[in-house]
Design brief:
The protein is mainly alpha-helical. 91% of the residues lie in helices and 0% in strands.
């Protein structure tokens, strides 16, 4: 049975994961800047591009989710008690959208991961491909990290969405 406790559990987990993602993004941006300034080889130049770009995205997404989690939690808990139909019309719809977005992200990240692995394999012993090997390894690192964290987020969202679905079914559809 879906309860307020489930709501109170989901959002802090999301907020903590978002904070970790934010920190990971900041570390990636700082690391890429440091590597770019310290090492002038083509390999590092290629490596820092995906690390920096994806790090910025990770930081922005982490910040946005972290910033909005408390408001969504308060609204969902309030709705659970005083306006349960809002859980169906707003929160359930929002979470379906989040779930679809996570699915799209996971597919994109899996494709990037496969492309990076393919690049690493194809360029492994090729001369004059240091930039592209660095880029492939940076992409591999960031795609794997993003895929892992987004996979965990999708699992949490799926559990929460199933709980909302059961609440709606039991609360509104029962005779």
């Amino acid at each position: 049975m879906f309860s307020k406790t489930d709501i109170e559990k989901y959002f802090p987990e999301e907020k903590n994961a978002a904070l970790f993602f934010l920190i990971l993004g900041i570390i990636a941006v700082l690391l890429s800047a440091l590597l770019f300034l310290m090492f002038k080889t083509n390999w590092y130049k290629g490596f820092v591009i995906p690390v920096f770009v994806v790090g910025v995205i990770q930081g922005l997404v982490g910040y946005q989710v972290h910033k909005s989690a408390d408001a969504y939690r308060k609204d969902a808990v309030f709705s659970y008690d005083l306006n349960p139909s809002k859980l169906e019309t707003k929160e359930y719809v929002r979470m379906q959208k989040v779930n679809r977005q996570l699915t799209v992200l996971l597919i994109a990240e899996a494709l990037l991961l496969m492309a990076a692995v393919l690049m690493v394999i194809l360029l492994k012993n090729k001369a004059d491909t240091a930039f592209w090997r660095g880029l492939a390894l940076g992409l591999l690192l960031q795609a794997a990290l993003s895929f892992g964290f987004d996979g965990l987020a999708k699992n949490r969202a799926g559990v929460y969405l199933n709980g909302l679905r059961s609440f709606i079914t039991n609360h509104f559809k029962s005779p």
